[in-house]
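Lay summary. Proteins are chains of building blocks that fold into shapes, and those shapes determine what they do. In this project we predict the shape from the chain. Here is one chain we studied, written as its sequence of building blocks.
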Amino acid sequence: MSLSQKHTGLLLVPWFNSEEWRYAFRLIYSNYREKQLEALDLLKMWKLRTPILCTGVEGTLIVLDALLIAPESMPIENLSNIYAIALMRFLNLSAANADKQGLFTKTSVKNDLPKWLVNLRHDVAHGHRLPSFCSLKMGLDFGLAWLKEKYWEPQSKLIKDYFVEDTPELDDQLSSSLSAYFAFNLALCDKDDLDAEYIESIAAMIYKKFKKRPNEPQEIANYLLEMVKERLNKGLKIPDWCLDELITSRVLLRPHFESTENGQAIAEEFRDSWAKLLSAFHQRGALFNIIEKLHAIVANISISDTTKMMAALWINEIMVSLKHLNENKNMDGLLNLEPSRYTYIVEFFNFKLQALVHLNQFTKYFMDSILDYVSDADLNDSMRSLTSAKTNTEGLHSIKANVWMPRDLDMEIGCSEDEHLAESSRPEKIVASSKWTKIESGFQLLNGLA
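And here is the predicted shape, written in a compact code that computers can read:
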């Protein structure tokens, strides 16, 4: 919900929250065709949700829809007709947006629409021939800029979210459902036996809800997941404590590793067992929040290496799956996430810079997948080089194994007998009478070379 310009109180709107609205704003005025096409899809989705859009959004949809038609897709005469209709509709909306209706010219002047644009509309409406294609396009370009000044920029300062507070009863229901689902899912992964009395109490809860009494643990887990999803969908915002309960060393970060040809990975069965729950969070746009919390684990120096390794591997699994999902690629062998309208492109662009600030030996397990997800070739190459230099502890071990330094040497340093060499280029000879010793610290050497 957001605050209306004309009405006091709250107004139901078709965008999910103010961030989605601002995301559309950024895409529309990005000057990149691909991003504007994404914005157009978003506006059309809003139109499906709410057929009668506010004037600013409706006008933007009309103008952008026309401007993004590829000129080579049709004859110029047909495109001119589309531009003319779009311009007429846009101007009728814009000049009619007043409390009192009057002459079109007076209303247009009041709304800061230039006279040449009004004349262009008159020629479209009453002339025997359409204005030139260039004139029509110039009119639509002006309209898009006018909408930015009159609608998008002012609204960006006013629009804000209104959240309905979740009731304690709903929190209790969600907490009990999540705890039960965690217990059953982990028991299935670990091949553990659950207490018969506990199973019976959960089965009774499921029967009360679905009028069905499941017997198999997997069937019980599936019903519990449905209860979790139902309760998640009742709130406008996923409670932060839900994610905190999931991202712990006793649930999602419980050690389940397997060796692959590419190194350590999360055990496939354990990974796949959480796919449906992670998909449920993805449907609500919370997957980026999960990534942020996992990265906080990776960056926390007080947490065990095993837990940090699991967190880093989960970031990689989620990022690779999102990349394949967005590109409609085969998901075999990956975390099988379900499609969602959320892409998190802007969030991950900022996140990769944040990840670079907190480099450690676990960053290398997910940095490539982060960089692949957000395309910026020049920046990504630089970040890969820096990540490799900062996190490649194996390279430091190699230095420690192969570089030696003299300790307490009796050295005789003299000039070469080649007197014809310039003073600055004379080679030196070192005569050592004691043993060389291995350096104790690779970092000490690097600091010495810096």
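What the prediction tells us: The chain has three domains: 2-158, 168-393, 402-449.
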